[in-house]
Structures are given as C-alpha cells and as structure tokens.
Amino acid sequence: MRVAAEGTERYDAIIVGAGPAGIFAALELAGESDLDILLVEKGCALHERRCPSRESGRCVHCRPCDITCGWGGAGAFSDGKLTLSPEVGGWLGEYVGVERLKEAILVVDRVWRDFGAPDILHGADPDKVASWRVRALRQRLRLVDSPIRHMGTERCVEVLEAMRLALDGRVHILTDTPVTSIVVTDGAAGGQVAGVVTADGSRFESPVVILAPGREGAAWLQAEAEQLGLSVTTNAVDIGVRVEVPAVVTDEITDDLYEPKLLYTTSRFEDPVRTFCMNPCGEVSKENYGDVVTVNGHSWGEGGPKTLSTNFALLVSTRFTHPFKDPIAYGKSIARLANLLGEDIIVQRLTDLQAGRRTTKERLARCSVPPTMAGSTPGDLSFVLPYRHLQDIIDMLEAMDGLLPGVAGRDTLLYGVEVKFYSSRLELDEGLQTKVRGLYAVGDGAGVTRGLVQASASGLVAARAVLLGAAT
Fold this sequence. Notes:
By secondary structure, this protein is of the alpha/beta class. It folds into 2 domains: 2-116 and 151-233 and 424-471, FAD/NAD(P)-binding domain (3-Layer(bba) Sandwich); 236-420, no CATH class. The chain has 13 helices and 24 strands. The protein has an 8-stranded mixed beta sheet with strand order 6-15-16-19-14-22-20-21. The protein is globular and about 70 Å long. The model has no long low-confidence stretch (mean pLDDT 91).
C-alpha cells in the first residue's frame, strides 16, 4: 500500500468481495507477483459470522446477512460441493472457451485440495454413470456427467479459513467494509478505473479493480454498471422448491454419484427443470437476500451429524423477454409472498398439494420422516407459486419417481420457495474485463457463474489477465 498525495491509500489492485471468486483472484495475484493488493469485504471475518435463525428458527434480517456475506461468501456455509464439470456452474465457458475453462477447473480443483478439500471424487466411475444415464433416459431425464468433491459444511469453513491465513501478510484485507461506488476517469464506459469508495467515505485508488460481490451484491453491481453505461444481458431466474425425502429413497443413486444432476423438459409447457444441490442425510436451511428469505440445504462431511433425509432443489428456469427485464425482482416478489404467508418458509406434503389442501401441523406430524428445518410453517404452496411452476415441479417429481421410486411419495415434503438470483451479465472480454479499462467482473454477482468451482475459476481468469497486462 502507498499513500497518495491527498492522503488516500493507493494499491496496484483492489478486489471487491471475499467469496471464492475474490479469494482465488487474490491467491493468484499474491502468488505470482509482488503487487500491493487490497481485498474489501462488506461482511465480517469467518469466525465472526453468526446466524440468529439457527437458534430461533426465524430470520431477523441482519444487515448484512452472515449467511450470504463475509469471508468465504455465500458458499462458506454451504455443504461445499466442488463440481468439476464445465457443463455445470455457470457460463464462464462462453467467455473463455471450453478448453480454457477445463484447464482453469483443473487448476482451481488442485488449489482447493491443497488447502484441505478431500481427494475423494464422487461420480467418476464411467460404468456407473453410463448405467444411471440409461436409466434416466427411460424416464425422459438427462443425467449430466458431473464429478464432485464433497467437503461438507464444516470442512468448507476450515478450507476457506486456511485460504485467508495463506493471504495474511500478502494481501491487505478489510472486512465489515461495504464498497458503495466505483471511481472511473471520464465516469463511463471507455474510461479507466481509478478505485473505489467505501461506506465510511474512504477512497482507495487503483488502476485495477476486480468486482466479485457475490449474489448478495448483484443488485449493487447492476446499478453501478448502469451508471457507468456498461451493457448487460438479463439472465434467467430459477424458481422452485426444496424437496425432502427419506434418504433410503435416494441412497442407490447418491451412493454411486453423490449428487446427480438431472435435467427434464416438461410435456405441458416444455419448460426446463433441473435438480440442484442434492444433500444425502442433510438438512434444509435458509438464506437471506436483503428483505427476503429463501430455502436452501446442506449436509455435513464425514464424521458430521447425519439425518434420515435427503434434500434437493427442483428449479424451473424462466428467461423473460421484452418489455420485462428484472427477473431478480420477480423472484423476490414470489419469495416475499411465501415469507408473508409462512413466516419465512412454507412446508407442504406432496399429497396435500396434489389434493388441493393445506398441510397442517397434524398432517405434518404423520410424516414417516420429520422435517429437518425448524421453524418452517405448514401451508399451501399453491397460494405462492404460479400454476405453471407447480405443474412443472409435479411433472419432474413424477419422472424422478420412475427412476427412484418414492420420490413422489405421500410424505415427500416441499419447502418454498427456493430462488436462485443470477445477476445480469456484463459485457466482458475473454479476460473478464469490462469496457472500462482495468475494471473486471467475476463470480456469481457478475452473472458469470453459479457455483464454487466456476466462481473460483473466474477469479483465476481475471487475475491472470491482470498479471498479463502488468507484464506487458
């Protein structure tokens, strides 16, 4: 760090956001150069992150949310799945090409393992994958080849903390420091980035800024992009439910693949539906996105607590066209409705949804496996989700029931709603640089990725582009 004449701090590179994208950008820059680097994160340090809802069962809307903000980003308290397929986890390949993406995935996989991720790779047996692919096709389901390393929630935290320790003394890290604006000479596309301004009015100068704000910072990044005149493309929004079934229903496929990635096109509407984040013997959990609460899930690693249930998301992808261009607002409006009717999260038995009745506490108590989320409210998801989404989800469950009998059983639980907010995608070059010179955008918050591995890879790509520019 150097002090500029007017008293502001000056760095060679500034990274905004300490999720996987920002962390991997910092690791690459610090490991391959002697640049002065600043990493700014609006949330707190990892060991300080606390969520009151884990004790009370109710979200109290902390600002910022300790589940989605802080060192490690929203992935810190996920179950730490590293999906090593270029087909899964985002759109980075559209910017850098499939071969470069594959190479980047290999690099970030090695780095994750260097810091403590397990060597065990699930879903890598080609014979088992081929067998399940044929069985899935008989139900009109497509199985995506996606080898996975599973860290578990507790090891994910340990690995991310190890990365922070590795950066100590090499990168200046500021937590609890929200960035409010980006400074650009000429103030628009075509100019040169000059630094950032934080919430307390501090100004940090740099000719290189890598934006990695995560999903929590997606709206902020979009607003900044619009102010700077940067072109954006609207992504789809994924809306659905978290499904919970007895673990014995899914053991056969999770034992072989751990997390099967299944895609389905519905007969009635021809909508794409996919499974996401399957957690054998896991727990259903919550996420907070500002003023809305959504549902999620995770599972612990070896030696951690196990339940009798498996949970996974079923998500319907919707891409809006003219004149509507705010899918994040649409997703949040549905989540708010669930929060209003269900005091955060609604849970409903599949049989009650199909019969057109609300699930009650008495009906929920008759389930063969009790719900794993404390504080969820028995209710009726038909008052929340559009008919089209509900029908798509039911169709997908019926197809999956042909593959895994019992998935569409009477006691299958549906938690709502689960929404994945994918930011508007900025116009970026192959190094993930915007039209503003020196300004890069990476990770989930930039609409480039939607998972740990591709987010990490995007940080790597941007850092290498910065280093290449510095070398020339």
